[in-house]
From TrEMBL:
Coiled-coil spans in chain: none
Domain Tetrahydrofolate dehydrogenase/cyclohydrolase catalytic span(s) in chain numbering: 5-116
Its biological purpose: Catalyzes the oxidation of 5,10-methylenetetrahydrofolate to 5,10-methenyltetrahydrofolate and then the hydrolysis of 5,10-methenyltetrahydrofolate to 10-formyltetrahydrofolate.
Name by which UniProt lists this protein: Bifunctional protein FolD
EC number assigned by the record: 1.5.1.5, 3.5.4.9
Length: 286
């Protein structure tokens, strides 16, 4: 039976430690959240982020956009937030309405306020494995923190990342690569046989495709580490992309859904937000 990678418990501890750090710093971090209020998921996740932020001492301001908003209008909102010294972090909750080019908006956020690390500058730092302080997307960074907490060795291991989104797959593969794993990426155009072949040999599998039970226990190697980034609702129940019942019998470690990667995403965003406020305070002193 696999050990559960308990993101819920770890995120709770991280948030308690963060609340102390925020208090000790004497800073007043403020996170501006731009989102589409007509998107049910965005409303839910923004609400979760705001409540968690309040608990650790981070103020939030939410900016709801209309469903026919243009990219130019959102770029103007971001430019105003960049120029506002009271705002130390900016988060653009994806997806924005279809009328908006999300990536163009992410890249317009000032790199030092880009707490989700989704802009071109911060992504470039990650993909170049550059030293220094920069934000990395909260979901893959949260996965790395979880793996580190359970002492899971990545060096020289074979990792498969299923999914190639900006929010998850691409930065996840870069982080694993930077940690000296050998990384294979699979996506919707990867032939099924090729994916199954990669899974059979993988020490670590990280999946985020949004298809319930996409990966089952019989497809993975004995003792593999399984990380489920999927979030699906089946018969009113939240479930991941991995068929938990069959997979936990073969894996050495596995994340549950809910209670695995999701809470780590929120805790990591808050950590990134505090780090951004701290860095801005330090550079304003210099
Ligand atoms: N700008 C961003 N947009 C989006 C991101 C992101 O990191 N940055 N991620 C996703 C969704 N997301 C955060 O925004 C997120 C998803 C899920 C959870 C979570 O804690 N889920 C719970 C279960 C909740 C439920 O039962 O419905 C869990 O896994 O335990 C947190 C954050 C999209 N957009």
């Amino acid at each position: 039976m696999a050990t559960i990678l308990d993101g819920k418990a770890l995120s709770k501890d991280l948030k308690i430690a963060l609340a102390d750090k925020v208090k000790e710093s004497g800073l007043s971090p403020k996170l501006a959240v731009v989102f589409d209020p007509k998107n049910d998921g965005s409303r839910l996740y923004v609400g979760m982020k705001q409540r968690a932020a309040a608990k650790v001492g981070i103020a939030t301001e939410d900016i709801a956009v209309a469903d026919d908003v243009t990219t130019e209008a959102v770029l103007k909102i971001v430019a105003d937030l960049n120029a506002d010294p009271s705002v130390t972090g900016i988060l653009v909750q994806a997806p924005l309405p279809k009328t908006v080019n999300d990536q163009q908006v992410f890249s317009a956020i000032a790199p030092e306020k880009d707490v989700d690390g989704l802009g071109a500058f911060n992504q470039g730092m990650l993909f170049g494995d550059q030293p220094g302080e920069y934000a990395v997307a909260a979901t893959p960074q949260g996965v790395m923190t979880l793996l580190r907490h359970y002492d899971i060795d990545l060096h020289g291991k074979k990792a498969v990342v299923v999914g190639r989104s900006q929010l998850f797959g691409r930065p996840m593969a870069a982080l694993l690569n930077n940690a000296n794993a050998t990384v294979t990426m699979a996506h919707r155009y990867t032939p099924r046989e090729m994916l199954l072949d990669s899974l059979q040999n993988a020490d670590i599998v990280v999946v985020g495709v949004g298809i319930a039970n996409f990966i089952t226990g019989d497809q993975i190697k004995d003792g593999a580490v399984l990380v489920d980034v999927g979030m699906n609702v089946v018969d009113g129940k939240t479930t991941g992309d991995i068929e938990f019942a069959s997979a936990e019998k073969k894996a050495s470690f596995i994340t549950p859904v809910p209670g695995g990667v999701g809470p780590m995403t929120i805790a990591t965003l808050l950590e990134n937000t505090f780090a951004a406020a701290l860095n801005q305070a330090k550079s304003s002193k210099n």
